[in-house]
Description:
The chain has helices spanning 2-21, 23-27, 38-49, 56-60, 85-101, 109-128, 151-170, 189-206, 211-214, 216-224, 258-262, 270-278, 283-287, 317-325, 334-337, 350-362, 370-385, 389-397, 408-421, 429-437, 461-466, 468-479; strands at residues 64-66, 240-242, 266-268, 288-289, 331-332, 345-348. By secondary structure, it is mainly alpha-helical.
Amino acid sequence: MKKICYQLLLGMMLFIAGCDDHFESLQENPNSPDIAAPINILQSIIQDSWETPWTRTERLNQYYVSTYVVYDDQNYLLGEYKMDYGTLRDIAALEKEVARVGTEDSKQFLPVAKFFRAFFYIRMTERLGDIPMSEAVKGEEGKFTPIYDSQKEVYTNCLQLLEEANTELALYTGKTYALTNDLYFNGNITQWRKAVNTFRIRVLMSLSKRNEEMNVAEQLHQIISDPEKYPLMESIKDNMQITYYGSADDQYPLYPDNGRKYASIYFIGDTYVSQLKRTEDPRIFIQMVPGDTQNAGVEGRERMFSSYVGGVTGNTIEALQQQGSDGLLAYINYDTYITPTGLPCVQLGYQELQLTLAEAANQGWINEDAQTYYTNGIRADMDFYGVNKDEIEAFLTNPVNIYQGDNEAGLKQIREQKYVALFQNSGYQAFFEQRRTGVPEFSIGEGNANGKIPLRWMYPTSERQYNEENLKAALQSQFQGSDDINDVMWLIK
């Protein structure tokens, strides 16, 4: 009997020991792996960077209007911005995975990670102001309540990250591409370098009001003067863009049903339509369709600028809805957009780059010809839409579109054409450009519940809950304690 009890006790002890040995493995979820190939992490980061067309963003850019409040409106009550630290943690995970893999070619991911680190910090700071950066994404080091870095510090650090990303990418030019199949450039290192430097040009121009403080002109001149060290996009073929391939899970956002729905809910905005009509821009015939009652029955009305009327963003929803119901307003061109592939959605493009350089040349910040950049930018965007060469030449030789020189009139032309080139592309970039320059003049009226065009988003509630002390300090140093959508951040003072 004692022998039997002893054997039972021994068996139980061995069983418990076995359970202890396997305890950690039992906690692992085989359906949720704790490691991932660098390219898989990068694809997720890239998807987080996308800003797709025909969203609320484009209504705030005044490219189109909603006529039903249930589908949103254009009241400009921006609210809070959800910060991008989740994606920044993915970037840190990408760097750790590269270290785990340990191969030389896997290190090609590291400069791309630096680019995206700068990209997402810029995305946050241009919307909010000061943000945590130097102590952010350091939970493993016990830093759960990071201090806020000033906006100037954030931009300084991001510009340095972009400098390093370009330099490090150059080391891999012409070598085996570990980046193969990335969603933007399919592993083309040269195109990645062009994107990094083109983005840096965008960031520098966004700092135009801080030119002397941030040496904007000097940095722009340095980049333009050394194309071998700082390659830039050379055509629309270099654009960083979302390309829709038309498969069931990769279709243009408006296809197949939303396009028809949009035609009775969303209409093209007057701020945009008026610009195209004033300059007799042929892009209007590709991007939109006239309202049903505009020049009704007139042969060839689709090619008449007078047929196109846009919805005024500042009007009330009720007024816009009545105009839409009456068939007065222009709407989306089905043939251009409502297909499985639609058009690529440019996130960062050659056409924008050329017009930014035109502005820099107009200001005398780079020793280049502003008119050449101005013309290149217009041609590139018209090529993007497939405008024929005769129409392009007619537009460029129209007296209203001939570059007026390196003066205020020429500068306004450049900025207006950048607004046109950003139509349904690059997310909020048109909004940020208008905030910086005042061009074009945005519509304000009864439909704008804020009473003016706001300047920023508010910090998320989560910061008040988990990082209140540092948030209060940041608000005090920036806005005397306020957190309002009309507060003026350092970037645009």
